[in-house]
Amino acid sequence: MFSFSMASLQSAAAMFVFLALELSLLFVLISFAVAVIQHKLPAGKVQSLLSSKKGSGYLTAAAIGSVTPFCSCSTIPMLNGLLRAGAGFGPTMTFLFVSPLLNPIVVGLLWITFGWKVTLVYMAATLLVSLLAGVLLERLNFGRYVKQTAPKASSCCAPKPVEAKTPCCAPKPVEAKASCCAPKPVEAKASCCTPKAAQQPAPEKAKLPWRQLWRDALGQFRAVFPYLMLGVAIGAFTYGFVPSEWIAAHTGRDNPLAVPLAAVVGIPLYLRAETLIPMASMFALKGMGLGALMALIIGGAGASLTELILLKALFRKQILAAFLVVIIGTAISAGYLFTALTPWLA
Fold it and tell me: Membrane spanning segments where (predicted)?
């Protein structure tokens, strides 16, 4: 199964350096972008758009996930931002499933390589399962297994209301209230804050605290750095020392267990979107069936060891187990669906 040689070692080392640099840069940039969006978009708006109580919240989450060109790992910073902003747990999980599976790069390459029929079936199957999984996890109250997101969201909004209430509690505004909202109380309210004080808050709201946002992004990166490097090391080892020939040989059309095996093998492989479809095309030429091929793509794109290690910082083991069940279940179900539809899709 494993191929130990100097070439394998060099391949694994090169992949480790590439993934470590790429994922580190992506994580910091995405964390910063999410921080900017959070600063501009009030938490109340996020909660309204991605509410678990509305069916539109799940569809909005799926739409956001389908247009974000993220792999399974680079989805995590935005997922963290949605949780901290108070988005519904169900829609947030739908986003987590949809983002890597309906990645526009994956969809585009699938269309070019396998044609529109395969792509449409793939999109319909993954979207339907992602929506159902989000609703089911919300109904089963899996949101209680999220680690420390609610306190951060509330503390973010605490200082502003407190400061706003303090200047308004002066005796003059109380007298202004008794005057039945006449034009004078409005002037009294304005006079409560001198023109200089009134001019200062406006620029502060208009300007973004760039340094603070960068510090927040780097702080999040430092917190997950050990998990990130551990996952990258595992993925690089698998990439360098497990030959593709072994995968193709054990997932051929004649193997009845090819679909579940391909679904499970795809997760530790950590398949990048840019290499996913070319590798799949190569496996097809080596005899891998269409069902096993799709199971491999969904398993590889939907989850990875690196992503699971990163998710461990946000979720408890109950959600991690449910996440794996959904991804592997989707991969296996879609694999057998594609096997049954192979004559029509050919």
Answer: 12-37, 57-83, 95-114, 120-137, 224-242, 254-271, 283-306, 318-341
- Cα–Cα distances in angstroms (integers) from residue 46 to residues 51, 57, 147, 239, in the given order: 8, 10, 19, 38
Instruction: Name the domain count of the chain.
Output: 2
Q: Which amino acid is at 64?
A: I
Shared domain check, 214 and 92:
yes
How many helical (H) and strand (E) elements, i.e. helices and strands, does the chain have?
Answer: 20, 0
Residue 281 forms part of a structural domain? yes
In this structure, the answer to whether residues 201 and 294 fall within a common structural domain is no
* Residues 6+ positions from 57 with CB-CB distance below 8 Å: 49, 50, 51, 88, 90, 91
Q: Give the integer Cα–Cα distance in Å for 172 and 3.
A: 81
Helix, strand, coil shares of the chain, percent, nearest 5, are: 80, 0, 20
Tens of pLDDT, residue by residue over 277-325, are: 667 777 777 677 889 989 988 988 888 887 888 888 899 999 999 999 9
Rounded to whole angstroms, the Cα distance separating 338 from 345 reads 8
Hunting for tokens 């590439």 — which residue is that?
A: 18
**What sign for the dihedral angle of Cα 141, 147, 148, 149?**
negative
- 251 and 300 housed in the same domain: yes
For residue 185, the enclosing domain spans 159-206
Instruction: Read off the pLDDT of residues 220-276 as tens digits, 9 standing for 90 and up.
Output: 788 778 767 876 787 677 677 767 677 667 766 667 788 998 888 878 766 665 566
